[in-house]
Amino acid sequence: MKRSRRLRILVCVLGTWALLAYFVAPWVWERYFRDQVAVADTPRITTTSDGHPGDPLNIALVGSEAEVALALHAAGWFPADPITFATSVRIVVDAVLRRPDDDAPVSDLYLFGRKQDLAFEKPAGEGPRQRHHVRFWRSQRSEAGSPMWLGAATFDASVGLSHTTGEVTHHIGPDVDAERDLIAGDLAKADWAASTRNVPDFHAEHEGRNGGGDSWRTDGGLVIVVLGAYSDRR
């Protein structure tokens, strides 16, 4: 009887946590941010589905969608799978068992009123608990006839509960500039960076917190990489 009672209590606790974390908290936050003015410095900072400021934009690629995919593949980055029930279960299992999952899904962030158009990741350590990842949104801006893709690159340092909603999530490392520079460096090593430049003071605020409550810091710069394979430039 005691064991059965403890089991019922555990089920109630878990059910209450799930209700609060995945339904009540997002609902409250969505309505709170709906009434705020200039919550995020859009389009310099992404947002979550419930209106929280998300990860800061820190890198931009210039090229076609095919060039973005080819360049990042050559640089050792993998396209992230879409979020489905199957991929969500797989990332949990792989994280627990520390199994490689090079194309594990990433959560959605929003810019220009839509979720990311592309997402890529680079493994770090065992399993998807830690990984480098970046989301890209196609912007209206173009250079030399090619579209510009604005990206938010961060490092997933650990798995835990969100500081704002209590949902299970990845916690990012604070140094987003390191992730920005990693992508630019990987593209250069793969001979896919036709040119690279930095836009200083892209961010007026050099510190902040994302939707999960994780802190981030930056020097304020946006790195723009114009893509082009070496064979195309000879």
Give the biggest beta sheet: 8 strands, mixed
The total of beta strands comes to: 14
Q: How many domain regions?
A: 1
Alpha-beta content class: alpha+beta
Distance between the ends: 78 Å
Segments where pLDDT lies below 50 for 5+ residues?
32-42
Q: Give the ordered list of helices and strands.
A: HEEEHEHEEEEEEHEEEEH
Number of helical runs? 5
- Radius of gyration using CA atoms only: 19 Å
Shape call: elongated
Percentage of residues in DSSP E strands: 25-35%
| Helical residue percent band | 25-40%
Overall average pLDDT: 78
What does this protein look like?
The chain is an alpha+beta fold. The protein has one domain. The protein is 32% helix and 32% strand. The chain has 5 helices and 14 strands. It has helices at residues 2-34, 65-74, 85-97, 176-189, 230-233; strands at 45-47, 53-56, 59-62, 78-79, 110-111, 114-115, 118-123, 131-143, 146-161, 168-172, 193-199, 207-209, 215-217, 222-227. Strands 3, 4, 7, 8, 9, 10, 11 and 14 form an 8-stranded mixed sheet that branches. Strands 1-2 form a two-stranded antiparallel sheet. Strands 5-6 form a two-stranded antiparallel ribbon. The longest helix has 33 residues, at 2-34. The N and C termini lie far apart (78 Å).
Give the arrangement of secondary structure elements.
Blueprint: H1 2-34, E1 45-47, E2 53-56, E3 59-62, H2 65-74, E4 78-79, H3 85-97, E5 110-111, E6 114-115, E7 118-123, E8 131-143, E9 146-161, E10 168-172, H4 176-189, E11 193-199, E12 207-209, E13 215-217, E14 222-227, H5 230-233
Parallel strand pairs: 3-14
Antiparallel strand pairs: 1-2, 3-9, 4-7, 5-6, 7-8, 8-9, 9-10, 11-14, 12-13
